[in-house]
Amino acid sequence: MGKVVMYSSVSVDGFIADENDQPGSLFDWLLSGDVPLDESGALKVSQASFDYTRTYWDQIGATVVGRHVFDLTEGWGGKPPSGIDHVVVATHRPQPEGWDPEAPFHFIDGIEAAVATAQELAGDRIVEVAAGDVGGQALAAGLVDEVRMDVVPVVFGSGKRYFGSVDAQHLLEEPDVVIQGNRVLHLRYRVRRSE
Prior knowledge:
By secondary structure, this protein is an alpha/beta fold. The chain has one domain: Dihydrofolate Reductase, subunit A (3-Layer(aba) Sandwich), CATH 3.40.430.10. Helices cover 20% and strands 29% of the residues. The chain has 4 helices and 12 strands, in the order ββββαβαββαβαββββ. The protein has helices spanning 47-59, 67-72, 111-122, 133-140; strands at residues 4-11, 15-17, 35-36, 44-45, 60-66, 86-90, 105-108, 126-130, 146-152, 160-161, 177-181, 184-190. The strands form 3 sheets. An 8-stranded mixed beta sheet has the order 7-6-5-8-1-9-12-11, sandwiched between helices. The protein has a two-stranded antiparallel sheet with strand order 2-10. Strands 3-4 form a two-stranded antiparallel sheet.
């Protein structure tokens, strides 16, 4: 099984969106360079960000998101983002009426079952869990191996928290990756396991 990684861009004060689910300038770093990040050429980053992000994206086999993110993005039109093979939606609700059953989206009740489904689909590739409430649930359940964050130099003051509603302390190891890009600091931490 591949590792489970909690990931998102985040403000320096720990938010992934404002109170109205708007990301503000959190993704400006994806337009701050001259190296195309994908085939579309729309996303251009610094060379340092490309080397880190492209390598990571290429390792992702499945992404776990909550129903809220799925609804906000309108399910990405049935096509997983960033070339990811499968999206697992952790939700108590069924798939939307009229949803294409051939689309590589899986609607699973409960975070443990959602991560297990994603691991099965991803095989030895990475399972990415979106930060926020779903990521916080996965962390609290002991399912996350690694925390990755793209820290952007903006302060939100309030909004949707990176770790969702986690209300207990969780220790991380020292950062094993610290990379400065244009308008972003890429960080990676392994989750410390209790002995």
